[in-house]
Amino acid sequence: MRIPLFVWSIEVFSWLLLLVLPTLSAGLTMLLLDRQAGTHFFAPSQRRPDPLPARVLVLRASRGLHHVLPAMGIISEILPVFARKPIFGYKAIAYSTVAIGFFSMLVWAHHMFTVGLPNYLNGFFMLSSMVIAVPTGNEDLQLARNALAREHQPRHADAVRDRLPLGLHLRRAHRYLPRGVPGRHAAARLVLRRRPFPLRAVRRSGVRDPRRLYYWWPKMFGRMLDERLGKTSFWLMFVGFNVAFFPQHLLGNMGMVRRIYTYNEHGLWAAYNLTSTIGSFVMAVAVLIYLAAIGKGLNGRRAGNDPWLADTLEWYTTSPPPPHNFDSVPYVTSARPLYDLRHALKERGAL
Fold first, then answer.
1. Alpha carbon of 6 to those of 167, 206, 266: distances in Å?
2. Contact 5, 336 (CB under 8 A)
3. CA pair distance 185, 195, nearest whole angstrom
4. Within a domain: residue 131?
5. Helix axes 133-151, 90-104, angle to 10 degrees
6. pLDDT digits (tens, 9 = 90+) for 210-247
7. In a domain, 95, yes or no
8. How many domains does the chain have?
């Protein structure tokens, strides 16, 4: 209970990698043997290959790795630094991270409700897809409480409340709710009504946001990224993402399924898809500006060892850090060791 929540998330994700990647390796090996050695794992008859076993293995591997875990860990790392408060519900978030990792191993077939699996399997994966919403919702609730605490706290002299990494985090929090809700809704509708549900889940869509790089770039390279370019990229990405993907929810309610290759050239379908295309180009511009900020940041202003007045140990050493990290590792008494050290020095009048 003295490690950062980001480390919790990476630890759980690492265990998931160990557990699910052998499944992918097995599937790839079987596919290779089918193609090169004439075996029939996925094609009992050369005239009628069966895609279901391959889909099972691939989804078992890909969906077992719950991609939200590292992202939520990063949010948990950044938010208390800029809120200037310890994170609320540390234990609840840590245990929820473990629970999300466990249940993510049990939900992979919720992408296969319409392929003809038996009812008892569909029912199991429906329930598991709904159960995983409990620890995920708890983690979201705790992070929302921290965000609200930030908004209602008095300003401190050392606060850096409006810096770019925090804004990028808030965009990520705004993005997650519309990505997560459709999956739970679709799980219930698909199984209970036994028919394809057209709500287009855009939970996986979207460019990986750069908040982690803006936050840790000063530590990695000892220089700050350009704040003006970063904020421009942030707002363009925020607008572009919503313009691109909100129409997809409307299209789903109108009957458009995922991975469709054509549609009527007239009417709302065409208009909404054109709107999504415009939004995607806005996001592309945001990515180009983001890359320009990175290029400029290679020779940006010096960052110092701890430009954010952060809480965790990586900010205790120089920027960039030496290969051995520390001459002597500080004594850790909580999940915020650097904050504790700074507070102790203030009490002694040394800071």
1. 18, 22, 48
2. no
3. 14
4. yes
5. 150
6. 667 888 999 999 998 888 888 899 899 989 999 999 99
7. yes
8. 1
